[in-house]
Write a structure and sequence with these properties.
Elements: E1 2-6, E2 9-23, E3 26-39, E4 45-56, E5 61-67, E6 75-76, E7 81-90, E8 94-105, E9 111-122
C-alpha cells in the first residue's frame, strides 16, 4: 500500500492486476486500484476534481482530468474518509500513475491540491 499526507489529507492506494484482453487487435493489461481519502485535518473538505498522469513501460503517457471521482464530489468531514475503486488499461505489463486532487477547505474557503503519490502497476507474471 502506498500512502501520503498533504495538508492533513491522507491518500492510500492499493492496486491489483485484473487480467489481459485484446482490443483493436492489441493486447491490453487491466489494472484496478482502490483509493482511500482520509481527512486527518480539523476542517471539512470537498474533492472538486482530479488530475492523473498514467505511463506504461513503453513510454506511452496519458493524462486524465475531470470533475470529482467516479461521478462524485465528496465532502469529507474531519476524521472521516471516502473510498472508491477505479481502473486503467495499459499496453504493457508495467506502468505507474500519479496525480493530484483539487479540493476546497470549507473553514478557510481556500482551494488546495492534495498529492496522489506515484504507485506502480505490474502484472505478476512479468515480475522476476
Amino acid at each position: 500500500m502506498i500512502q501520503q499526507v498533504t495538508s492533513g489529507i491522507k491518500i492510500s492506494v492499493e492496486t491489483e492486476f485484473e487480467g489481459t484482453f485484446y482490443k483493436n487487435y492489441k493486447v491490453h493489461f487491466a489494472f484496478g486500484y482502490k483509493i482511500t481519502i482520509e481527512n486527518q485535518s480539523r476542517d471539512s473538505v470537498q474533492l472538486n476534481s482530479r488530475y492523473w498522469t498514467i505511463q506504461d513501460a513503453l513510454n506511452n503517457t496519458k493524462t486524465v482530468e475531470g470533475e470529482g471521482v467516479i461521478g462524485k464530489q465528496p465532502i469529507i468531514l474531519p476524521g472521516e474518509y471516502h473510498t472508491y475503486n477505479s481502473g486503467c488499461l495499459l499496453t504493457s505489463p508495467f506502468g505507474a500513475m500519479h496525480g493530484h486532487y483539487n479540493m476546497t477547505n470549507f473553514t478557510t474557503t481556500s482551494d488546495f491540491q492534495v498529492i496522489i503519490p506515484e504507485f506502480k502497476l505490474s502484472a505478476p507474471f512479468a515480475n522476476n
